[in-house]
Amino acid sequence: MKELIRGFSKLSREDKVKRLIEQQKLAPQLAKVFEEYLHPHQQHLFNDISENIISNYYLPFGVAPNFLINDELYMVPMVIEESSVVAAASKAAGFWAQHGGFKAEVIDSLKNGQIHFTWPGNIALLNELRNEIMKLIHTVCRDVTKNMRQRGGGIVDISFASIANMKDTHQALIKFNTADSMGANFINTCLETIAPHLIAYINKHDTLSREGTATHIMSILSNYTPECLVSCRVSCAIEALQPYAAQYSAHEFAQRFKTAVDIATNDPYRAVTHNKGIFNGIDAVVLATGNDFRAVEAGAQAYAARKGQYASLTAIKLSDTHFEYTLTLPLALGTVGGLTNMHPLAKSALKILQNPSAEQLMKIAAAAGMANNFGALASLVTSGIQKGHMKLHLSNLLNTLAATHDEKRAAAKHFKDKVVSYAMVEQFLRAQRG
Ligand code: MEV
């Protein structure tokens, strides 16, 4: 059995790599790869982001032009490892820019935090005392919320509810406005400040304490933010969809598109893939701007299942003449604080977007999601998805197989009308190389 490593975090980067190579019996040349991807001048910035860092992991940073969102033209930065996503987003953005663009609206931007506690009392009693408890919260959090209040944010509301299927277990659900920050640290600091005061309040209150003793369990923000909601819509005359309709008439295409959306509304297997296509665009913007894509995913996936069955995040309306397509989802994003201000490329991404507010970024990310989903469905109901993927797939395979410039040119010609697979590209290169 391999030995447990002690004190790994205290080793220098070079010693960590040495230890890793020894322990895993790796080729010593791997050390060079890790070194090659260190930043020559600004490695200290990346060293502060995580722990036990031995190198940096590169992902492509692309830009999708022509995003017309509420009459404002954006070039949208996208960080993604999957080929075709930026191309599909750019194509859809260019199309919709000629048909009124994306109309996006932030429905609300409240975030949630929870304090969980046990208490044998009746939760309705706590809800009756909400106003008094809110005053207490404002008092104990005065210093913690000072800056946020100056930026227009703060603690907005509190309510109490019991946890389903659990005896004597409750939550205080606290709503926050975090202005332009995602606000995770702010919310958690507020919750940890409030919790001991809230528990003491219950345990000292004449009526409440008679019901029994309250005990704090935990305090943390919730990544479920159904009130931090954005909606993005595109619409046009059905006839205008002809460029996407391929072998179909525009009306047939619109009907096939609607059937595809209806399937995603009613079948969870399809809904997951449909929504994954939306997240191709959203995650790419979230990642580019230094936001927390796990938080965004977890919250929006829960929202997709809010009616008891996982379903599409988009909805479609088709009249005899008109096509209207809407995406609605929670997106808790920030444009100040956290990685947004630390990572040089996240800062650059925000500059590309003309330093948007958090609400503007919600709209931009939603438009990117809508663009990718529209592009994916349009392909799926016409030529299928593989045709468009083939060129980029071929290029990825050629890079993997270390093809030269001339080999790439020959391959592009050879595979123009053929299906591309790893085995076929390998065979082609073998023949080329004699
Ligand atoms: C692939 O990354 C995304 C799609 O599967 C989305 C969809 O099926 O709608 C093409």
Give your account of this protein's structure.
The chain is globular, with a radius of gyration of 26 Å. 48% of the residues lie in helices and 19% in strands. The chain has 18 helices and 10 strands. The strands form 3 sheets. Strands 3-8-10-9 form a 4-stranded antiparallel β-sheet. Strands 5-6-4-7 form a 4-stranded antiparallel β-sheet. With 434 residues, it is α+β, with helices and mostly antiparallel strands. The chain has helices at residues 13-24, 30-36, 43-47, 85-97, 123-128, 130-140, 146-150, 184-204, 206-210, 242-245, 250-266, 268-288, 293-304, 344-352, 358-380, 386-400, 405-414, 422-432, and strands at residues 61-69, 72-79, 103-109, 111-118, 154-162, 169-177, 215-222, 228-237, 314-318, 322-330. The mean pLDDT is 96. Residues 82, 273-274, 276-277, 280, 376-377, 380, 385 line the site of (R)-mevalonate.
Q: What is the overall number of helices? A: 18
Low-confidence stretches: none
Round the Cα radius of gyration to an integer and report it.
26 Å
Main sheet summary: 4 strands, antiparallel
Strand content: 15-25%
- Distance N to C terminus: 46 Å
Q: How many β strands by DSSP? A: 10
Bound molecules: (R)-mevalonate
Q: What structural class is derived from the secondary structure elements?
A: alpha+beta
Oligomer: single chain
Strand order of the largest sheet: 3-8-10-9
Question: What is the helix/strand order?
Answer: HHHEEHEEHHHEEHHEEHHHHEEHHHHH
Integer average pLDDT: 96
Shape: globular
Proportion of helical residues: 40-55%
